[in-house]
Amino acid sequence: MTEAVKITDLVQEFKMGEVLVSALRGVSFSIPKGHFVSIIGPSGSGKSTLLNLIGGLDKFKSGKIIVGDVDISTLNEKQLADYRKKKVGFVFQSYNLIPTLSALENVELPLIFAGAPKKKRDEKAKEALEAVGLSQRMEHKPTELSGGEQQRVSLARALINDPAIILADEPTGNLDTKTSHEILKLLKELNEKNHQTFIIVTHDPEVSQYADRVFHIRDGLIEKEEEGVKD
Fold first, then answer.
1. CA 132, CA 158: separation in Å to the nearest integer?
2. Exposure winner among 7, 86, 154, 216, fewest CB in 10 A?
3. What is the DSSP letter of 115?
């Protein structure tokens, strides 16, 4: 099976004052293309650090990350920006929407940065919002949307450039239980429909109900890997 992500001996360290903190201590694993994977761990386990490194948001101390056929450890800043723009979609716990823009305008942003013409931006943004069930809320601003609706806008924005992988950092962290399951179900449906690879970082073990594989991380190391729990 083709690998979407392959990580080998990944090490990341931070300086906090005079103290050197080991965030990741030699992490190795791989994710097959098209899989829905959850990385579960407590606060401070290194899971968000790991997601940021896969997404090309930070440089790492040593090791290797290969996404598709791209070894991101070899990329310069310009190439990393291009990688983030074309290969990766991000979904955040806090939605990261611009409050003065409508849902449609928020979703269009990646295409604006990519230099797409307005007609194409409008068409693709509308398609993405329809895909996440928000066809009736396109002109609403974030303050006029519920938390679940804001996360759907965030997801539509992540999908807009047809990325190879979707990275979601605690995507249900600000949502109630019912809405959390709705968002997770939607993520899984999109994963199966689009054959994109989804990597969900969370502290919530219930995410494993939707995952093909579950990686448990603690103190910067993968403790165990297991099959997802299917209902």
1. 11
2. 86
3. T
pLDDT at 60: 93
Residues of the chain with pLDDT under 70: 1, 229-231
Residue 50 pLDDT: 95
Contact 175, 146 (CB under 8 A): no
Euclidean distance between CA atoms 224 and 226, whole angstroms: 7
- The pairing of strands 36-40 and 197-202 is parallel
CB atoms within 10 A of CB 120: 12
Q: What is the pLDDT of residue 159?
A: 92
Amino acid at 212: D
Q: What is the DSSP letter of 145?
A: S
In the block, tokens 């650090």 appear at: 49
Domains of the chain with bracketed CATH: 3-227 (3.40.50.300)
Alpha helices, DSSP H, located in the chain = 47-54, 77-87, 103-113, 118-131, 147-159, 177-194
